[in-house]
Amino acid sequence: MTETVVTRFAPSPTGFLHIGGARTALFNWLFARSLGGKMLLRIEDTDRARSTQGAIDAILDGLKWLGLDWDGEPTFQFARADRHREAVDQMLADGRAYRCYAGAEELEQMRALAQAEGRPPRYDGRWRDRPAADAPAGVSPAIRLKAPTEGETVIDDLVQGRVVIPNKDLDDLVLLRSDGTPTYMLAVVVDDHDMGVTHVIRGVDHLTNAARQTQIYQALGWAVPKMAHIPLIHGPDGAKLSKRHGALGVEAYREMGFLPAALRNYLARLGWSHGDDEIFSTEQAVEWFDIGSVGRSAARFDQLKLQNLNGHYMRATPDDELLAAFKASLPYLPGGEEAKNKLDATGRWDAFAIALPGLKERAKTLVELLDGARFLLDERPLAVEPAAEGLLTADARALLGELSGRLAALDPWTADGAEEIVRSVAEDAGVKLGAVAQPLRAALTGRKTSPGIFDVLVALGREESLGRIADQAAPPRAA
RNA sequence: GCUCCCAUCGUCUAGCGGUCUAGGACGUCGCCCUCUCACGGCGAAAACAGGGGUUCGAGUCCCCUUGGGAGCGCCA
């Protein structure tokens, strides 16, 4: 009798889907998929002031791009406020919650005093046992949980192990604000229960919340779901990941030219391991995933390793697939729109496809791939980069002139044929191959580096190649 | 301040009492390959935070110290 596993990813739509959230979503997804369960999506939009439709769209878009699909329609937390209040009514009726008339200033003073006396800044429960008759007129109360004051609350965490929090350190949290709106703490419990969530997987920053929420579950007489609090991702300096570290939304990673599969692999490997396996498919990850193998210490985000992994993925991706991925990503890459227009206008997509095998070998991201393909985008006469200028000496230009004539006779226009000619020109001139190949590279691409030069010749085609060489070659007889 | 969590190469990690003179990956540095840059191949430097226990035996278990981190709202 195995119950079906139900996990959920519950972002609050106050910003984009950041990388930490993406990993939380991934772990929920991996866990659910590995056990044949479901992953639900819940938008925690109870903070009306900060929640935006734009953020909701960005989060859904980010999840889709990452390939993390969820089951059913997303649940919107704000829409369930009535149900949340219903749960509070139950707790009130059962004597597990009470009305608190303490005002904002009063609470602030309470906290300040506690701090000053070296005590934790907690609510002192002053309205906990006061009779209703004491209620001040005209003040609408907040509803607080009548939390246990003695004993301890235990969280049997799948990642953190058995975590024990003394109840005296937990105060009577607010369930319903004085304006009648439910708090996050309440909403999460009621929603997870109603949605049938069996496993709550989220960041460790929620560990203390887990204890408070456990108390709410207990007050409601509901079973507590299994919990797994995964460590946070830190920046290179070991501190919490922030914008300064490049902790951007997942869409930023799309703009940087990363492949979703590579990012998935990287994120899964960050904090979770399956022996020494570094590169594995999503299918393997699903097969291998084991929440118990998730480490307990925070991991630093290493963009260099992500890049290396992405490079592996690009090289391993079949050319036609990579081409499709590249085309799909182009609108998001810097200068991608412009590049697309040029490729469309010049009809050089064919050349791009021909050059792709050589290009992908040299790129760690789609952005680098695009950069490497720039010689396909440029028009004659080519602007030669300063660094490559030095390659085009007078001798080199003369060699190009010689090469130009011989190449013109090449038919068919193949890499092998071109190589034979270039080698013979070098040999006849008594120089090394590089002495001809490098100037040729400068003439053809305007740069010092590029894919293999014979492949470049083929990708560019006879006419364009000959034209570019002529642009840089010394005039046949003149000077 | 209080509560909780964490601690193996620079980074991500393997290690679940003896197989550890600690393995892999990224990064770094050499060498090879080579038309450039990459890729690839080979190799090198690089870690069990410190101190006490427990045990025949500790990177692995316990405690303390130190160092990190998270949480302590009528935010989520």
From TrEMBL:
Motif ('HIGH' region): 11-21
Top-level taxonomic group: Bacteria
Start and end residues of each Aminoacyl-tRNA synthetase class I anticodon-binding domain: 352-471
Cell compartment(s), UniProt: Cytoplasm
Motif ('KMSKS' region): 240-244
Domain Glutamyl/glutaminyl-tRNA synthetase class Ib catalytic: start-end pairs: 5-307
Residues the record lists as binding ATP: 243
InterPro entries: aa-tRNA-synth_I_cd-bd, aa-tRNA-synth_I_codon-bd_sub2, aa-tRNA-synth_I_CS, aa_tRNA-synth_I_cd-bd_sf, Glu-tRNA-ligase_bac/mito, Glu/Gln-tRNA-synth, Glu/Gln-tRNA-synth_Ib_cat-dom, GluQ/Sye
MF-aspect GO terms: glutamate-tRNA ligase activity
Catalytic reactions of this protein: tRNA(Glu) + L-glutamate + ATP = L-glutamyl-tRNA(Glu) + AMP + diphosphate
The UniProt record lists the keyword ATP-binding: yes
Enzyme Commission designation: 6.1.1.17
Keywords, in A-Z order: Aminoacyl-tRNA synthetase, ATP-binding, Cytoplasm, Ligase, Nucleotide-binding, Protein biosynthesis
Keyword rRNA-binding: no
Protein family: Belongs to the class-I aminoacyl-tRNA synthetase family. Glutamate--tRNA ligase type 1 subfamily.
Function statement: Catalyzes the attachment of glutamate to tRNA(Glu) in a two-step reaction: glutamate is first activated by ATP to form Glu-AMP and then transferred to the acceptor end of tRNA(Glu).
Subunit structure: Monomer.
NCBIfam families: gltX_bact
Protein name, entry field: Glutamate--tRNA ligase
Lineage: Bacteria, Pseudomonadati, Pseudomonadota, Alphaproteobacteria, Hyphomicrobiales
